[in-house]
Amino acid sequence: MPSETTIRPADAVNVEAALERARHAVDLATSAGADHAVAQYGSARSLELQQREGRVESIEESRSASIGVQLWVDGRYSSHVTTDLRPATLAKFVTDAVAMTRLLEQDPHRRPVPRALWEDRADVDLDQVDPAVDALGQDDRLAICAAIEDAARADAAVLSATAYHSDGHVLFARAAADGFEGTGEHTSLSFGATVSVKDAGDKRPEAYRFTGAAHRADVPDPGTIGSEALERALARRGAAKAPSARATMVLTPQAASPFMRRVLGAMQAGAVQQRRSFLEGRLGDRIASEHLDLWDEPHRPRSGASRLFDSEGMATKRRHLIAGGVLETFFVDTYYGSKLGWAPTTTGSTNVVFAGGAGDLESLVSGVDRGFLVAGWLGGNSNPTTGDYSFGIHGHRIEGGRLTTPVAEMNVTGSYADLLPRLAAVGDDPEPWSTFRSPTLVFEGVDFSGS
Amino acid sequence: MKTADPSARWLHDFEVDEPTCRRVLDAALERGADRADLYFQRVAQTSLSLEDGIVSRASTAVDRGVGIRSVLGDQTGFAYCEDLTEAPMRAAARAAATIASGPASAAARGVGVPIGGRGLYPVDRGWPDVELGAKLAIVRSVEERLRSADARIAKVSVSWVDSDEYVALVADDGRAASDRRPMAVLRASVTLVDGANVESNFWSLATRNGLEWFEESRLDAFAKDLIARTSILFEARRPPAGEMPVVLAAGASGILLHEAIGHGLEADANRKGVSIYANKVGERVAMEEVTVVDSGLHAGERGALEVDDEGNASERTVLIQSGVLEGYLHDTISAKHYDVAPTGSGRRESFRHVPLPRMRCTYMESGTAEPADVIASVKNGILAENFANGQVQIGAGDFTFFVKNGWLIEDGKVTAPIKDVNIIGNGPEALSRITMVANDSKLDTGGWTCGKAGQSVPVSQGMPTSLVSSLTVGGTNAQ
């Protein structure tokens, strides 16, 4: 019988056992008549704690395992996943999946990944597993939550503070009928807090602060995270909308990451092929100011996003995405690469790094005469086809190089195509643990809607 | 209490029997929790998508497991497992039990007769019994309708997801419930190219009805609507930035209710005192003509629900009655906290998640104004018609919704189309600024999904044509 606090992921105890299960699923598929098959076995365990008012609010423990198969049958293709791993049920699931695939149409662009794209992958130790994360006991977790909550409640204006802790361990193994084999494994530790504070009238502004890493030694002090959540909530008191204006926009590193990540969506070959990318036809063009210099770094050690092969099994490598404002590459998988007649690159980003910046938030704000610091977003969306965006914001006014009154209930609206060339400055202060490592960014001439 | 036959069919899908359930529940109570429940779930899903005229993706997925919960006051211990044999279930139950730290509670009682089966999901044949060819035919026919609808069509993609979800809940007090929930979502996107300009848009249809719901006339209307939503974008502009009156078109505009008031009335946030609506029950929050409801009882709608994911019967819950705040949406924990009956609003994404108070089908009832008079009353403002998404901060009350399509209103008349702007407001302020409600309330049939605390659940929303006298609209400032 499994012990109550499993250290390792659910079912398979190690990547070798996981690989054995993936190979077995490939065998099931080829025995059922598939011409080619890829199988991935994944397994994970996690433990989450929430603490409020000095007591545990919830404990959630999970252990999970699944098998996914991709099938090529007679020039037809399909993919399937199940968590019902009982041997007889799994065998029937795969057999039924092969039969279903025969009912589809042939698709000449769905081909197995060519051997040349996977066989020479890097042999690097990504250092993604920390035994100290697996060794965490309930007392350690409670101590982390207590330190966070104590710091997050340290003001009389606090109405409610909740501390969160989660740790986990994920492993997967992938095997294919053509001999491809690969595995991956990482631990994760994350914690943070949400804080609600009393404001004028019925308003109870809320803020959060979270951190996370693969290694325990790489996360900041829990008390610091609690204090930062509290500071953020207090900073939002008295927020009001400012008059509509065209002004300079400074994005904190936390706000810049989701904002800039949307640009990568338009770099997917699938978006280009389906005519839903504002970057279509722009390869080699200057799409942003010379301050934008982006790299994808899949072999960055101790990051949960690092990987030696991508979601199709293609070997990964460091790649310049945008060089001094010039679009250098698209994310090209084998399917859309075949449709476009383009050579495959990789299926998507891993660790995105901004190069060449200088300065932190404070120094970049000091250079702005009139504008807004955006600290966070509320709703909104962007249109990848046209590059148009419109988002709700909260943050502070900037007047004479200093942060003044807090603002909320405002929108920023524009187009990435117009905005990226107006990137005026890039900092060097990304969150150390983040996988989309955006620093502070400064854009000029942005439309703000308010009163 | 009547006791169910231990060989009852309703648990057979999971190959468990009543004595096993009771032993697992006893393990969940071994350290003194007040109560415990088991939530068994099996979901089988089929997905298809068509791109460039052929099926580009086809997949199936099966997910099966049990979520085990021990509750002590408002504290929750939870664990799940996918292996439904007794040993791993008991191990998971003992992990959930650690929320408490005393001696064992009383043993679980015999399992009662499950509730459920009010006919809210009118399906002739379950989706697993519908042949793949029939699903492919729907996808293909929509693709053909779209491809031939406009000479500027460059790309069409159509996708289909159907799912057959079966849940069974067993609680330590003998309560039992089961529910078989069908769902189908048809989604399409088109890209039109006109000279150097490229525009795309998407839309979806979602239902808990069966195959027969996807009739020709419905597919025709869906395709025509999507082409209209997309071709209008070539003429659309951005509105001026700032505060202005906003007319909400009937139907999907219910997204305003979902964000501006619905989330703020989910009782977990009020129990913790973090909602702007905490302690406001009984107060006037809107004019007399405003009545807002959250109901699970609209047969066939995406937000329909027979029983919630805690085994409580779903119901019609009034949130605002004639302008007065009536009550909250409760799960079992918050209902106990407030000493009221649960509202059947305890929902979860899957057996991997704990239940939380959630919305089902949220809408405003019809008022008395004529829709045309609502538009005619606006000097300078916008009409918001189609939406992509929304969000809310329940403490500060600020909320947003993103308008994909809309119109400028000038001198009481609809003039130029607008696109892709975010609208932001404050919940209580926006409610107090609803000044006209028309007589045309309707539910939207789009595939809306609500996210909260990392969990997604299907929802519906509806609205009559109505006027909010002032909201902040994203747009362009004069140079």
UniProtKB/TrEMBL annotation, chain A:
Residues 135-236 form the Metalloprotease TldD/E central domain. Belongs to the peptidase U62 family. InterPro entries: Metalloprtase-TldD/E_C, Metalloprtase-TldD/E_cen_dom, Metalloprtase-TldD/E_N, PmbA, TldD/PmbA_N, TldD/PmbA_sf. This is Peptidase PmbA. SUPFAM superfamilies: Putative modulator of DNA gyrase, PmbA/TldD (SSF111283). GO terms for molecular function: metallopeptidase activity. Residues 43-100 form the Metalloprotease TldD/E N-terminal domain. Residues 245-450 form the Metalloprotease TldD/E C-terminal domain. It comes from the Bacteria. Transmembrane segments: none annotated. GO terms for cellular component: cytosol. It comes from Rohdeia mirabilis. One of its GO terms (biological process) is proteolysis.
UniProtKB/TrEMBL annotation, chain B:
GO terms for molecular function: metallopeptidase activity. Gene3D superfamilies: PmbA/TldD superfamily (3.30.2290.10). It comes from the Bacteria. Residues 242-475 form the Metalloprotease TldD/E C-terminal domain. Residues 128-230 form the Metalloprotease TldD/E central domain. It holds the Pfam family PmbA_TldD_3rd. InterPro entries: Metalloprtase-TldD/E_C, Metalloprtase-TldD/E_cen_dom, Metalloprtase-TldD/E_N, Peptidase_U62_metallo, TldD, TldD/PmbA_N, TldD/PmbA_sf. Keywords: Hydrolase, Metalloprotease, Protease. GO terms for cellular component: cytosol. One of its GO terms (biological process) is proteolysis. Residues 36-99 form the Metalloprotease TldD/E N-terminal domain. Belongs to the peptidase U62 family. This is Protease TldD. It comes from Rohdeia mirabilis. The lineage of its organism: Bacteria, Pseudomonadati, Planctomycetota, Planctomycetia, Planctomycetia incertae sedis.
